[in-house]
Write a structure and sequence with these properties.
The protein is of the alpha/beta class. The chain is built from 15 helices and 14 strands. The strands form three sheets. Strands 8-7-6-12-13-14 form a six-stranded parallel beta sheet. Strand 4 and strand 5 form a beta hairpin.
């Protein structure tokens, strides 16, 4: 038992609000198979755990370095993934079973030998940059300059609800640029599509809102769009749901989309600061413990709770980082089965494809899919 208290009080400290049901589902999913007795969820912001916590101790809780997510009776702050690892023994904490440091070739042989069946991918902005997606936060970029006409106090204000309700025009200017159809998937997107075609992709968790994963042919049920999507939209007044395409014409002609029922502003289902995470985000509670390989592509691993997912796979599971820089656990304490392929994302993916022997197959897929897009555009 946890030293000093037999029924620890656990508080979930959120970077974004969750409704009570989502939080309860997340917590109970963790507790269901790891407590000797039932756990009781009592309030939105705290929970009493009456189940056995034999796998932990007060000292181990104090040693955690993760500073967001869950607090165990004031002992320390834990992220959801750290909580599940430290308290329940789920997640990182092991190695590949030997003293050998894995190489990229080793991991690709693991795939080739068909010992790997459930690959989870975490992707960030670096996945889409080669497609020409502009960074609205970078001075000098065309999109940044276009947005300055609105006298935005700071770039992130575009994704704040209070600012949106005051002036939705800057967001819809950004939406016009990023709306699906303006850009095309790149080599890395189609590599992920090939993982799906081969039955290897368990789930793709993306921070991107450009929808290029869908355009590449990865079905929605294989996607968790952690920061939302343009594929659907919701009226900010009556809460009616619409298909994102219903308002494409308005967005492209610089009109503010209005609900045909109540005339309220219709906002694409992009997650703004202070909004609930998508329900599908909580698939990570079952996806990551099941994964037998994790790819992390083009992300800084700075935004929570997405960043903590990198630590949610089992300790024996290889993690492959394809990124410009070392980030997250790779920068702090890399493990024996962590592999980092640093540099340009496309170059890193090309090396992976070469080692897998999939080069010709991927090139054929890209050719076929681009021909489809050309035909559709006509």
């Amino acid at each position: 038992m946890v030293m000093g208290f037999s029924s620890p009080r656990i508080e979930y400290i959120r970077t974004r609000p969750l409704n009570g049901n989502e939080l309860e589902v997340a917590f109970q999913s963790l507790c269901k198979e790891n407590c000797a007795s039932d756990c009781q969820f009592t309030e939105i912001n705290w929970m009493e755990v009456s189940g056995s916590l034999d796998k932990t101790s007060e000292s181990s809780l104090k040693k955690t370095t993760d500073l967001s997510g869950i607090r165990v009776q004031g002992v320390r702050f834990l992220s959801l993934s750290t909580f599940s690892r430290v308290v329940f023994g789920i997640g990182r904490g092991g190695n590949n079973g030997g003293n050998k440091k894995l190489s990229l070739r080793d991991v690709m042989e693991y795939i080739q030998k068909k010992e790997c069946h459930r690959i989870v991918v975490m992707a960030g902005a670096g996945l889409s940059t080669p497609s020409g997606i502009p960074d609205f936060r970078s001075p000098g970029s065309g999109l940044y300059n276009n947005l300055q006409q609105y006298n935005i106090p700071y770039p992130e204000a575009i994704f704040e609800l209070s600012y949106f309700f005051q002036n939705p025009k800057p967001f819809f200017r950004l939406a016009k640029e990023l709306y699906p159809g303006n850009y095309r998937p790149n080599y890395a997107h189609y590599f992920l599509r090939l993982l799906f075609d081969k039955g290897l992709l368990l789930r793709l968790y993306t921070q991107n809102i450009d929808g290029l994963e869908r355009v590449a042919g990865i079905p929605p049920d294989k996607l968790v769009e952690a920061h939302g999507t343009f594929a659907s939209a919701t009226c900010t007044v009556c809460r009616r749901s619409y298909a994102g395409e219903d308002f494409r014409g308005d967005v492209m002609t610089d009109k503010i989309p209005k609900c045909p029922v109540c005339t309220g502003v219709v906002k694409p289902d992009i997650i703004f600061f202070g909004e609930d995470l998508p329900h599908r985000f909580f698939l990570h509670l079952t996806d990551f413990p099941r994964a037998d390989l994790l790819f992390i592509i083009g992300t800084s691993l700075e935004v929570e709770p997405f960043a903590s997912l990198a630590g949610a796979v089992r300790g024996s599971v290889p993690r492959v980082l394809i990124n410009r820089d070392l980030v997250g656990p790779f920068a702090v304490q890399s493990q024996q089965n962590d592999v980092a392929e640093l540099g340009d994302v496309i170059s890193g993916v090309e090396k992976v494809v070469e080692l897998l022997g999939w080069k010709e197959e991927l090139q054929e897929l890209i050719k076929k899919e681009r021909e489809k897009l050309d035909t559709k555009k006509k």
